[in-house]
Amino acid sequence: MLELLFTIILVITSALMILLVLLHKGRGGGLSDMFGGGVSSSLGGSSVAERNLDRLTVGIGVIWFACVIALGLLLAY
């Protein structure tokens, strides 16, 4: 039962991580430049929305990592 719960959380957080990473603005010099994402703006710094997106991505990433570790420990025993 606990394995099923962690598996469901892992699938949900995996989908959220994909969406959140795709929402990030390209920093330049990478694959995003190849497809036209290299347009830079003259505004310096990051906005509040970008910082909140960063925090949300890190939070979901920590939950994802904890689920991977928990599933690994549950399945090992």
Keywords:
single chain; 77 residues; mainly alpha; 3 helices
Account of the 3D structure:
The structure is a single chain. With 77 residues, the protein is mainly α. It has a domain at 1-23 and 48-77. The protein contains three helices and no strands. The longest helix is centred in the last third of the chain and has 29 residues, at 48-76.
In short:
The chain is built from three helices and no strands. With about 80 residues, the protein is mainly alpha-helical.
Give the helices and strands, then pairings.
Layout: H1 2-23, H2 31-34, H3 48-76
Helix pairs in contact: 1-3
Which regions are unreliable across 5 or more consecutive residues at pLDDT < 50?
none
User: Treating each run of at least 4 consecutive H or I residues as one helix, how many helices?
Assistant: 3
Q: What's the quaternary structure here?
A: single chain
The largest sheet is: none
Tell me the structural class.
Answer: mainly alpha
